[in-house]
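Intended use. Records such as the Cancer-related nucleoside-triphosphatase entry shown here are meant for training and evaluating sequence-to-structure methods. They are not intended to support clinical decisions.
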Amino acid sequence: GIGKTTLIQKVTQALKSSGVPIDGFYTEEVREGGRRTGFDVVTLSGKRGPLSRVSSDSSTSRRECRVGQHVVDVVSFEQLVLPMLRNVNHGSDAEKKICVIDEIGKMELFSQAFIQAVRQTLTGSGTVVLGTIPIPKGKPLDLVEEIRSRKDVKVFNVS
């Protein structure tokens, strides 16, 4: 099957080439020697930085944000994503913009500032959000459920 990030990239290319103002980010697997070693954040303006890296070290300092064996680099994530989201949110409502957010998941939700910015982007009338959320397994993620149940949100299952 085609992965969600590939799908997002294809849609983004199509929208860009039709001249629609679009910004945002997607997450991309980082592989070394055939093994997944982490995820990067890539913004549509071409900036890239680490979102998480696999850590073999199981002795974790309490401040560390982990998802499985992935240690999340919240600072790097915020530096890339927050300026872009603030920028989208400060645009005029006159021009409809599209904001790509791939994805709103466990790793990204370690950032309180990201949660606030996503809420703001969804509330702003000038922006259409093209986002991806994980299929629920285990404990529901508050923001994800909040988004899923919004009247103005349409959820498609990509399998």
